[in-house]
Design a protein that fits this description.
It is built from 8 helices and 10 strands. Helix 1 (19-33) crosses helix 3 (61-85) and helix 5 runs parallel beside helix 7 (191-199). Strands 4-3-5-2-1-6-8-9-7-10 form a 10-stranded mixed sheet, sandwiched between helices. By secondary structure, it is of the alpha/beta class. Strand 1, helix 1 (19-33) and strand 2 form a beta-alpha-beta unit. The protein is globular and about 50 Å long. The two termini are 25 Å apart. It has 2 domains: 1-146, Acetylglutamate kinase-like (Carbamate kinase); 150-237, Carbamate kinase (3-Layer(aba) Sandwich), CATH 3.40.1160. Bound molecules: uridine-5'-diphosphate. Uridine-5'-diphosphate is lined by residues 5-7, 44-46, 50-52, 65, 68-69, 71-72, 125-126, 128-129, 131-136.
């Protein structure tokens, strides 16, 4: 399960979708597709619309969240287009019904697509408001029996403090769920998603999608990013 935040589609823009960034992302996904890995992708919508921020400006929270989910469908369609362009077979399913643009999310069908060698993009998160696509990724990873939830972020792992602010911040090589949830300064993904992964033993790998072939290296078992699990010791690099 690959969770890609909407920010990864921004490229150099401040808002929206940069087709060049999406194409680059598709190329990266192709490198692991070529290794016969079954891939499901949950895509975010933060580059277009976030429910929580819009609700602070007066839109009803649930309505704003549904708008956010629609943003993830737009991103999903952009990624589907790019994957097709680089020759990767792909289907898109949506947790909100819109059969003219995406299949409805049907668990057995998503599994079937992956077994047939198709990447499956899961749009609209959980289909329910008040949560984020991180929760969508955690839920879908569990129900599709994925091996690992790969969370693509701007930085190449989880740090003991914000690496964008502190030059001496250190990366965790591995961290266990208990510590990841307890450390407030460590923002891996939303707490509900983290708790769901902890309770159900779904390991998470946090890595940078655009850096030095990290996705490929992670799939090859190389020591990159940060691996979060119930068994892992909490160790800095
Ligand atoms: N969203 C939601 N339910 C879900 C998934 C997403 O309500 O199951 C809404 C929510 O408003 C969220 C927006 O869709 O802010 C975009 O998703 P997210 O913020 O997770 O995108 P990302 O940060 O990954 O780009």
């Amino acid at each position: 399960m690959l969770k890609i935040g909407g920010e990864s589609l921004l490229g150099d823009r401040e808002y929206g979708i940069d087709p060049k960034a999406v194409l680059l992302m598709a190329e990266k996904i192709k490198t692991i597709y070529a290794k016969d890995v079954q891939i499901a992708i949950v895509i975010g919508g933060g580059n277009i619309f976030r429910g929580l921020s819009a609700s602070k400006n007066g839109i009803d929270r649930a309505t704003a969240d549904y708008m956010g989910m629609l943003a993830t469908v737009m991103n999903g369609l952009a990624l589907q287009d790019a994957l097709e362009k680089v020759g990767v077979p792909v289907r898109i399913q949506s947790a909100l019904q819109m059969p003219t643009v995406a299949e409805n999310f049907i668990r057995s069908r998503a599994i079937h697509h992956m077994e047939k060698g198709r990447v499956v993009i899961l749009a609209a998160g959980t289909g329910m408001p008040y949560v984020t696509t991180d929760s969508g990724a955690a839920l879908h990873a569990l129900e599709l029996h994925c091996d690992v939830l790969m969370k693509a972020t701007k930085v190449d792992g989880i740090y003991d403090k914000d690496p964008m602010i502190y030059a001496d911040a250190k990366r965790f090589k591995t961290i266990n769920f208990k510590n990841a949830i307890e450390m407030e300064e460590v923002q891996v993904m939303d707490t509900a998603a983290l708790a769901m992964c902890k309770e159900n033993n779904m390991p998470i790998m946090v890595f940078n999608l655009f850096d030095n072939g990290q996705l490929e290296k992670a799939i090859d078992g190389k020591d990159i990013g940060t691996y979060v699990s119930n068994e892992a010791p909490t160790v800095l690099v």
